[in-house]
């Protein structure tokens, strides 16, 4: 596994591409009127690259090779957890030359959490509410199948524990978890992932499928977001 490269800030050009640009310096983060001209200042979050697109590509290829080796000669089904795992699943699955199908499950675990700045508890606001709700059920039966559950990030473990129980009720032949990121220091419920991309420190990350309030999923790198 490749090590985590020294962090760097995203260049202004890239921030501009993703729309993180100040249109006018208003000194506040809301629309204002100046004379007859309406100006908007977008909030400019601080994004620092934690894992570059090259590091991610290299590690995903290694994980795909592990899965290919472990399931040689067998059929598998990738079950992606919407929406965060969509990009990881598509990159991973295309490098596994086995007989494979896809399914997706949608869950909501964070509900309407407040942003850290709105919540005096700060970091605690990122915690799972502990309530997992299925928003999109599986389309197929998992009975007797080799299931690879694909998730973007393992945090408290509450979401994956819930999904794992739900899948085990189908009585699959095998059930393995592939998680791109893992924040072991945040775990509340033990969970074992067979394939883990990168253990990362306790920080809120976005990009490569991961969101903050549904944004930044399309960033090609994984970035730490400060003051989201
Ligand atoms: P858990 O139930 O606490 O393990 O939460 C897992 C889910 O929380 C993941 O599937 C993500 O959707 C979300 N999540 C946890 N940490 C982060 C993060 O740092 N950035 C974005 N989403 C996160
Ligand atoms: Mg997720």
Helix content: 10-25%
| Widest sheet, order of strands | 7-6-5-8-9-10
* Sheet having the most strands: 6 strands, mixed
Instruction: Report the end-to-end length measured between terminal Cα atoms.
Output: 29 Å
Sum up the overall morphology in one term.
Answer: globular
Mean pLDDT: 81
Bin the strand percentage: 25-35%
Structural Rg? 19 Å
**Count, helices:** 4
Q: Which residue ranges are poorly predicted, with pLDDT under 50 across at least 5 consecutive positions?
A: 1-6, 19-41, 111-126
Give me the strand/helix succession: EHEEEHEHEEEHEEEE
Class per helix and strand makeup? alpha/beta
What is the tally of beta strands?
12
Distinct bound molecules: inosinic acid, magnesium ion
Chart the SSEs and their pairings:
Elements lengths: L7 E2 L2 H6 L14 E3 L2 E3 L6 E6 L1 H18 L4 E8 L3 H8 L5 E10 L24 E4 L9 E9 L3 H11 L5 E9 L12 E5 L5 E2 L15 E5 L2
